[in-house]
Design goal:
Elements: E1 11-15, H1 17-22, H2 24-37, E2 40-44, H3 48-56, E3 62-67, H4 69-81, E4 89-94, H5 102-106, H6 113-122, E5 124-133, E6 138-139, E7 143-145, H7 174-185, E8 194-196, H8 220-228, E9 247-250, E10 253-256, E11 262-269, E12 275-281, E13 288-292, E14 294-306, E15 309-330
Parallel strand pairs: 1-2, 1-3, 3-4, 4-15
Antiparallel strand pairs: 2-8, 5-6, 5-15, 7-11, 7-14, 9-10, 9-14, 11-12, 12-13, 14-15
Length: about 325
């Protein structure tokens, strides 16, 4: 794998508004490091429409997302809709507490703002498999059905920063969030909402490297473990009572039908353009595992959690694995 071409060192830096409220200091640090190493255009969107317009007008700039997993997923889904996801490398600077940035961590992106920004400038591209559903949605890490696992056993609670957006900082205090917002307000005297041109070229920022995730952990099964929890007994997670009746097919072959209740279904992109499917049934001691390119789940309305975001209810959904379907910039080595 080679580093991005020099012409691609021009960056479109999309700073998520939640990140500006939650941890403005980290946002400012990351922005300064990026400005010090590449020509940058800073985008401070007020909503998803402005992100889409910025990506449509990015020219040859590489997109960089400063924010949590949801901000990264939004940019990835926009690029997928524009049929550009496999054509350009995407970079991320995670900002926010765990589990709001657990997907980025799983993918190998450093969690420290300096280390992550340096990876944007000096890193290398990884071509990663991806799952795309029949509605056009992208799954980068993994998903499971039903979507009712929470960190304390609660059901159907979307993962994200503690409390409503903008009310708590990384340490859980409202004061930290407000201080972060004030720090980011001072970024550019002439910058307001929207995407203004803020170009810069110069030296690199300071230290503060944080080790990034071990390559050995970046497998389909490990991704699901990190994003959803390895099981009922781990980290205080408790399964939702009862079972779900689903029909599951893998490349047209029936895996389980409505007459065999399932307690949990996991799905993640594996190597070679295949998806790894794990089905826990009520009447079996061990899960049933298989790999296929296309997985279809149908039955009574169900919810699922993909990359820690809750979706549904739906009655039928098909996911297709795409080999090397997207490109992510990560640290070298």
């Amino acid at each position: 794998m080679s580093a991005p071409d020099p012409i691609e060192q021009a960056l479109l830096v999309v700073i998520d508004p939640v990140a500006r409220r939650v941890d403005g200091e980290s946002v400012r640090i990351a922005r300064d490091v990026l400005r010090g190493g590449a020509a940058t255009k800073i985008c401070l969107p007020d909503g998803p429409e402005e992100v889409e317009r910025a990506l449509a007008r990015r020219g040859r700039r590489r997109p960089v997302v400063i924010g949590d997993d949801r901000a990264l997923l939004h940019v990835v889904n926009v690029l997928q809709r524009r049929r550009e996801l496999g054509d350009i490398p995407v970079s991320a600077v995670p900002v926010g507490p765990l589990p709001a940035v657990s997907l980025a961590q799983t993918l190998g992106v450093p969690l420290g703002p300096v280390a992550a920004a340096r990876a944007v400038l000096d890193g290398t591209e990884r071509r990663l498999d991806v799952l795309v559903d029949d509605g056009g949605g992208v799954v980068l890490g993994g998903l499971w059905v039903p979507g009712g696992y929470g960190p304390g056993g609660e059901t159907d609670v979307p993962a994200g920063p503690a409390g409503p957006a903008g009310t708590a900082g990384p340490n859980g205090s409202a004061e930290a969030g407000e201080a972060g917002a004030e720090a980011v307000e001072t970024m550019d005297a002439g910058s307001g909402p929207g995407c203004g041109a803020a170009e810069g070229m110069g030296g690199r920022g300071g230290e503060g490297h944080q080790p990034w995730w071990s390559p050995a952990a970046r497998t389909a099964r490990s991704a699901l473990t990190l994003l959803t929890g390895p099981g009922p007994a781990a980290e205080g997670r408790v399964p939702v009572p009862g079972c779900t009746r689903l029909r599951i097919e893998a490349d047209g072959v029936l895996v389980t039908d409505l007459d065999r209740p399932v307690t949990r279904v996991s799905l993640a992109a594996a190597d070679g353009g295949l998806a790894e499917l794990t089905v826990h049934t009520h009447d079996a001691d061990r899960p049933q595992r298989s790999r296929a390119r296309r997985i279809t789940i149908s039955g009574p309305a169900f919810r699922y959690r993909a990359d820690n975001a809750l979706t549904g209810p739906v009655r039928r959904r098909t996911w297709t694995a795409h080999a090397e379907g997207w490109r992510l910039v990560v640290p070298r080595g």
